[in-house]
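Hello K.,

You asked for the raw outputs rather than the summary table, so here they are, unedited. I folded two proteins back to back in the same session to keep the settings identical. This is the first:
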Amino acid sequence: MSVAGDSGGRAQQMRQRAQELKDAAERANDPQERQRLMDKARRTEERSEQESGTDTRGMDPM
């Protein structure tokens, strides 16, 4: 297995986790909990971008 493949898989898992956090934030009734979850999702997305070495904000998701 290559290192690039490992980091790509990890980045994908982190993006999936970030989406789960966003979904949980949407369901949260408490505004503070919602904000906490959204902040955690944002940090997780930033880490996934660092892991993958790309900035997905500028890419077309197809």
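The second followed immediately with the same parameters:
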Amino acid sequence: MAQLRRPPGGRPARIMLLALLLDRTGSGVWAAASVLYFTFVVGLDAGQLGLLFGAAGVAGIVGSPLAGHLAGRFPVRALLIGCHLLRLATLCALLVVTRFEALLLVVALTNLGDRAAKTLEMLFATRVAGERRATYQALSRSSANAGYALGAGLAAIGLAVGSREAYQALILANALSFVAAATLVWRTGEAGGHPQARTARTGGPLEQAGQEGREGAYGPTGRRKPGPSPWRDRGYLRFVLLDMPMNLDDSVLGVGLPLWLVHHTDAPHALVPAFLVINTVLVVVLQLRVSARVEEPRQAAGAVRLYGLTMLASCVLLMLSTGGGAWTASVVLLAVAVLVTLAELMRSVSSWELAVSLAPQEARASYLGVAGMAQSVQKSAGPPLLTGAVMAAGPAGWLVLGTAVAGLSVVQRRYSLLRLDAQDARPAPTVPVPATGRGSGTSRS
């Protein structure tokens, strides 16, 4: 609580953390109610639901690099407010849209705005928190998970009523969270976008988050200099590609564990909600402590290897959870939920720190936009991988998955260290000082 009152970045960061809490509270409401809303209110079947969420996943993949590209050219503060307003408009459209074709577009735009907003929030942290960005990231994840838990609890009230009006009230509650988040983001800077804080120690307002992508972008003639492109940086693209399997804990917790419990063990189905409870509580309680141990890039590279080993242990337990009776299966699956959450804690800080540190500072906005694709691709490809390949192969499928993730984590760690070494060996860029015609004197204007 003391860290939340005095976060890295000062007042703008504190306002942003509150915006995150309210935003994720609304997202938690919608996440808990969306499937039931589309099924019982709109009347979609399972095949249509699959297409709907598949389109949303593809749009999310596009959202991250698009946000990074725009952040190098426009104020991040304005872009983030635009994302909240886009989600507000598309969510309210659900109250009147019933045609499946129109729903595809509405849900895709909603998810595009959601992923773009997350990338812009990431850029905010790199600017306002500076070298203490790992601490800020921990606070933001704790705030976000607390919001998700609160939103799920609020959704339970509407789901218990179960009427069309109750579902519509939940949609409006989520829409209200976007209004509140946009208002708070606007408050991170004065009217007209002027900074409220400019010191290097406390950072700047939200619109300065994209400044790193624009500083030094213009030459003495006033023309824009071509900056490095993440799409031409094969080394960074290799990092992003390897980072995709480093996000599989999300699908294992949300899809793999519940389906494995239902179809392959004797554990009671009522145990499924406990997985989310364990995950939420541990993230809120432990994220800051884990982040305190990963405050620089080489520590983040070490955390990647620990992530792989933890995922391997989780998969081995899943392999052993069958055939032991209800009590044994329940204990083992709860232990898996704990291990997967610990892996998530390490992944959140390692992927975040390495994505920032391995990107050139003069083009950080566009690079982080590309890095955000890793999580979006995993959200689209992870569930089909688990259901269509891993669980279809039985217990051995989990062993293969765990071994593969552990092996790739070693490759990712090794590659990250090599790129960091190359960056350290590279000479620092020199900044030319333009002639003023008055010698070296300082102008008062």
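Residues 10-42 form the longest helix (33 residues).

Happy to rerun anything if the numbers look odd on your end.

Regards,
P.
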